[in-house]
């Protein structure tokens, strides 16, 4: 079994749609730390599970963007960001999105 992990930091803004009062419903930004893990039994013809640049390409869709626009109809929570990223990267098994120090959301397949 081959496992590859890439950690990146991206800056972006979002506002949440919540059914309670919160300052997070206002436009604000974060420097998210996103960790992506991919895994497969075999390697491709280049000797890789997934090229690191493919992971970077997907994650960078969040960098310096309004996350609400990237996720469309999904509420741009760290949890939804993690699932969306994992769904767009081949062989992805886990994505962690650290929104602030001590606040991390993880999605695992």
Quick summary:
It contains three helices and four strands, in the order E-E-H-H-H-E-E.
What is the CATH-assigned architecture? 2-Layer Sandwich
Name the beta content range.
35-45%
Low-confidence stretches: none
What is the CATH superfamily classification? 6-pyruvoyl tetrahydropterin synthase/QueD
Number of strands: 4
- Overall CATH class: Alpha Beta
Shape, principal axes of CA atoms: elongated
Structural class: alpha+beta
List the total number of helices.
3
By CATH, the topology is Tetrahydropterin Synthase, Chain A
Terminus-to-terminus distance:
16 Å
Indicate the radius of gyration in whole angstroms.
Answer: 15 Å
Q: What is the number of independent domains?
A: 1
Note down, in words, how this protein is organized.
Belongs to the PTPS family. QueD subfamily. Pfam families: PTPS. It is an enzyme of class 4 (lyase). The active site is at residues 24, 64, 99. There is one protein chain. A 4-stranded antiparallel β-sheet has the order 1-2-3-4, with helices on one face. It has helices spanning 52-59, 67-71, 78-87; strands at 2-14, 28-40, 92-100, 103-108. The chain is built from 3 helices and 4 strands. The protein has 109 residues and is an alpha+beta fold. It has one domain: Tetrahydropterin Synthase, Chain A.
